[in-house]
Amino acid sequence: MKKIVILGNSIAGIKAAEVIGYHLSDIEITMLSFEPEYPYCTNLFCDFIQKKKTLKEILYKPVEFYKDKKINVVMDKVFNRVNFNKKKIFTEDKQQFDYDTLIITDSPKHKFPDIKGVNKEGVFGFKRLQDINTAITLLSVNESVAVEAQGFLGLQMALAFSRYKKEILLVIPSGSFLSALLSSSYQEWLLKILQDHGITTIINNKIFEVLGDTDVKAVRLESGKIYASQLVLFDTTTFDLRAYEDERLKMGFQIEVNECFESSIPNVFVLGEISNRSVFSLEEQGAFLGAYLTGKKENAIKNKIAEDYITTDYGSMILLGNLDAPGDLISREELIQEKNSYKKIFFKEDVLVGAFLVNADEEKNTYLHSIGEKITASCP
What is the CATH number of the domain that holds 367? Predict the structure, then answer.
């Protein structure tokens, strides 16, 4: 019986397992989760933080799905290394798992920015539900949190955590996408929205050091100013790839794969953000690989238009488009005071590629269509 092992609980890996299981019966599929959680939808984290959705509601599939599809789920498992020659995975508790095909969707650990103090208790990222749950618990007994936000995700999380009526410090480094997003003729208006949520925003600065003994007590910014904080959250973390080190495996910040998501080592595939083809949606990646591994005709993968949002008692913010693709961004903006709404649209080489909408939900579908149709700046 052929053995397939999935490392990490990404949606992409489970979608691949579902497709493989549909076409093949003589197969054993095991998922090793680095967390005590079943696969979940990270785009629902904000709703979960704001208590608009329960844990059950943000799971990708119901728990019964894994039993029905005969997917063996091993929870909260950390491995030391992968022996790609012997096709074995060795865990910290001295277990080992053999595989014929390996699907990597995550790394056991993530790395924070290289600054002093990030290993203290109270420092978290935004990629794992385990971190989100712990941060929520700690925030309930503390008074302040610092969020360093490079992108829209950090803004989402700051707004989501603001519902707890704590002191929120939002630090936005210079040169970051979020800095450019909020840099506009109407910046004071945008920052006022954040202030109304209880968020103190500092633009063109960054966290230089996390202070405290074992627990976080404060942060020192690059400017030298110190702010009290019992939690520190970073929206930008990277994969710690040391467990996958092998002279044959090509990788930098991500693992390199070909058009079929196969790495430079045969029978080792990589899906999700850890892959250098992570611009495609997770479900599309998984469906493609599942069809490929079962010899079925795989569908062509289309670039999914990214859609991120946050809704609060004060209104909504929506970001559309894959704005981190290569190329210079040109933007246009409009503030409609009577509607308390704002929109900023982005072009690359005269083609519409994205939009930032504040309290303008009714225009979302129009912009999604226009981005998909690659409308030019000259079009009405």
Answer: 3.30.390
Picking from 185, 214, 234, the residue at the C-terminal end of a domain is: 234
Instruction: List, in order, residues 6 or more apart from 85 with CB less than 8 Å away.
Output: none
Cα separation, 334 vs 342, in Å, equals 6
H/E stretch holding 77 reads none
Cβ(142)–Cβ(227) below 8 Å:
no
Burial bucket for residue 367 (CB in 10 Å: 0-12, 13-18, 19+): buried
Q: What is the pLDDT of residue 380?
A: 42
* Nearest to 6, CA basis, from 85, 90, 99: 99
Q: pLDDT tens digits for 94-134?
A: 899 999 999 999 999 999 999 999 999 999 999 999 999 99
**Cα–Cα distance measured from residue 31 to residue 72, given in angstroms and rounded to the nearest whole number:** 6
What is the percent of the chain with per-residue pLDDT over 90, rounded to a whole number? 71
Question: Which region, left, alpha or beta, applies to residue 122 given φ > 0 means left and ψ of -120 to 50 means alpha?
Answer: left
